[in-house]
Design brief:
Order of helices and strands: HHHHHH
Distance between the termini: 67 Å
Number of helices: 6
Helix content: over 70%
């Protein structure tokens, strides 16, 4: 135990009471951490990051939620990712909205990467000919 935690439990005499006290001390921190991670997911924006960097960040947040005992379903993470995209991605988001089968995380990553590549090709050549 850290010095700060040890000071809180020095007078406890049974293991059961110790575990109950420690669980109570850290459950509020865990709940706060889960709320902070969810807020980070909701407010995350791709911005100028690469698709790979943005996905890594979002998956990292999802992994933190899972470690805290609150795992996300893939469709929830996909919603957070789509929410974090700029307006330039709206054609892709609209296409995903009309799909009859859900997209997987790997498919979404591939679609976003391909979209970025096509935009870069278009901008680099002044347009397709």
């Amino acid at each position: 135990l850290t010095k700060e935690v040890l000071l809180q439990v020095t007078m406890i005499t049974t293991a059961s009471t110790l575990w109950t006290t420690l669980a109570g001390m850290f459950s509020s921190q865990s709940l706060s951490r889960v709320n902070n991670i969810r807020t980070a997911l909701l407010s995350a924006q791709k911005g100028t990051q690469s698709v790979a960097t943005f996905f890594a960040h979002m998956r990292g947040l999802a992994d933190e939620l899972a470690a805290a005992g609150k795992p996300l379903q893939d469709d929830e993470l996909i919603s957070y990712i789509l929410h974090g995209l700029d307006m330039e991605y709206q054609p892709l988001v609209s296409a995903l909205d009309v799909r009859t089968t859900p997209v997987s995380l790997d498919e979404l990553f591939s679609m976003l990467s391909n979209f970025d590549q096509r935009v870069a090709m278009y901008q680099g050549s002044g347009g397709f000919k």
